[in-house]
């Protein structure tokens, strides 16, 4: 699918071979704050998830794609979640796994591809994302792609003994 191919990366569906990659990400406590995860995931549960991942976005209300280099290295994941067909919107989540691969343009390119796919193939009217107030890299990423801060959720997430604010961003398909 040419729509999900960029200059340096492409987005692909999950494969059974992604078990270790996803297991590593889902069990990385340093990023649990991003997904509101509280407990580790077993390989058994992730294997079951992978078996179900080929279901249609209209059925499961989400789409998770792997951000892959053209050397077939899995760099991260990007998601559409809370897919709402009636209101033509979905949430976006993105993660480049390795710190040394971040801020190299992979996330930006993946987000551009997903925006294009969402607006031109899924006919969505809007995308939104939630970003912790102190997450400057994500704020820069989403604002750089035209997302607009539309609100602040005060004391929204409890992290490491303190409440953190969270912004909500929105991108309309005009």
Automatic annotation (TrEMBL):
One of its GO terms (molecular function) is acyltransferase activity, transferring groups other than amino-acyl groups. Gene3D superfamilies: 3.40.630.30. It holds the Pfam family Acetyltransf_3. InterPro entries: Acyl_CoA_acyltransferase (IPR016181), GNAT_dom (IPR000182). Residues 9-174 form the N-acetyltransferase domain. This is Acetyltransferase. It comes from Yeosuana aromativorans.
């Amino acid at each position: 699918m040419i729509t999900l191919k960029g200059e340096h990366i492409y987005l692909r569906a999950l494969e059974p071979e992604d078990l270790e990659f996803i297991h590593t990400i889902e069990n990385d406590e340093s990023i649990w704050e991003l997904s509101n995860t509280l407990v580790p995931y077993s390989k058994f549960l992730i294997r079951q998830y992978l078996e179900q991942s080929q279901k249609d976005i209209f059925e499961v209300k989400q789409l998770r794609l792997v951000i892959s280099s053209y050397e077939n290295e899995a760099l991260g994941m990007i998601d559409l979640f809370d897919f709402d067909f009636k209101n033509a919107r979905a949430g976006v989540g993105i993660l480049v796994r390795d710190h040394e691969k971040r801020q190299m343009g992979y996330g930006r390119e993946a987000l551009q591809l997903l925006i294009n796919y969402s607006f031109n193939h899924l006919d969505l009217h809007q995308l939104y994302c939630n970003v912790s107030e102190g997450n400057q890299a994500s704020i820069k990423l989403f604002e750089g792609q035209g997302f607009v801060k539309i609100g602040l959720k005060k004391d929204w997430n409890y992290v490491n003994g303190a409440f953190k604010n969270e912004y909500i961003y929105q991108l309309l398909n005009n």
